[in-house]
Design brief:
- The chain has one domain (39-282): Metal-dependent hydrolases (TIM Barrel), CATH 3.20.20.140.
- The protein has 12 helices and 10 strands.
- With 285 residues, it is α/β, with parallel strands linked by helices.
């Protein structure tokens, strides 16, 4: 009977192997830590209403606290966007879009109002805008000559469109000009995941923003259809807060925490793209 004896090196190998496993586990835990993930907020409003509620410096502090590294900024009127741009906040990329609204009532009438096109073209001359929107359209309200003119202007000037649109209006926007580049606010709110996938296949210049988006999670877990969608099209999704009322500013931290909770359920590379890399790539120029 042979008696097996340990080599003097074997305990060392076991020690280092165990140490390597512990280090790897710690690194994996850090990678999965949702609080550490930067977010580019690709649907943000600094309208006139919250100015007294959240002063500009408070807003910028909130972004720092929540590790928000970029914002797609719009406001009604455009004064709030200009304030964010002119603040030149350190560590925060501000991507300004022209909002085609002066007052809230313009939401219902802008698509038939020639003075709105004048607003867009005048604001554009400031020289720093990268898009137009967020604007609201439902159904055939998108089929006006002034909406087409806005779409054509965006294509001519290499601007993105940020459209709060139902399915029909989205298709009309692309019919106006197939070269349009559209960020779809809320991804239709409740458009079925398989239909979203069909749009992403059909329109290569479409990106889907996820604020208020219904059906992504159930009981805090990603639904199987949305997990498949994110993993199939990891380059086509963006996150947003949609701070259209004061309450959204008050709950900004929980909005970001909710995103990070389900992002942590995705592969790290996919999560990073949706959280901030896609927006950085879109707006890198």
């Amino acid at each position: 009977m042979h008696q097996h004896t340990l080599s003097p090196l074997q305990p060392c190998f076991r020690f280092f192997a165990t140490l390597l496993l512990l280090v790897s586990a710690a690194a994996a835990a850090r990678a999965a830590d949702p609080a550490a993930l930067p977010i580019f907020d690709a649907h943000l409003h600094y309208n006139w209403e919250p100015v007294a509620h959240f002063q500009l410096e408070q807003v910028l502090t909130l972004f720092r606290q929540q590790n928000v590294t970029g914002i797609l900024a719009t406001s009604r009127p455009n004064d709030g966007t200009r304030a964010l741009v002119e603040a030149k906040p350190k560590g925060l990329r501000v991507v300004p879009f022209i909002r085609p609204y002066r007052v809230r009532a313009d939401i219902q009438t802008w698509m038939d109002d020639p003075t709105i096109q004048d607003l867009i073209e005048t604001e554009y001359r400031r020289g720093y805008y990268l898009g137009i929107g967020e604007f609201h359209l439902s159904g055939k309200a998108a089929a006006t000559k002034w909406v087409k003119r806005t779409v054509d202007f965006a294509v001519e000037k290499n601007l993105y469109l940020h459209a709060h649109a139902d399915d029909e209006a989205l298709e009309i926007l692309f019919a106006h000009n197939p070269k349009a580049r559209i960020i779809w606010a809320h991804t239709g709110f409740s458009t079925a995941a398989e239909k979203v996938a069909a749009y992403l296949e059909r329109y290569p210049e479409l990106w889907c923003e996820l604020s208020y988006r219904y059906g992504i999670t159930a009981g805090g877990k990603l639904t199987p259809e949305w997990k498949r969608l994110f993993e199939r099209y990891p380059d086509r999704f963006l996150l947003g807060s949609d701070t259209w009322i004061n309450e959204r500013w008050d709950s900004y931290g929980s909005i970001m925490a909710d995103y990070r909770t389900w992002l942590a359920q995705l592969p790290q590379g996919v999560a990073e793209k949706i959280a901030f890399r896609n927006a950085e790539q879109l707006f890198k120029h």
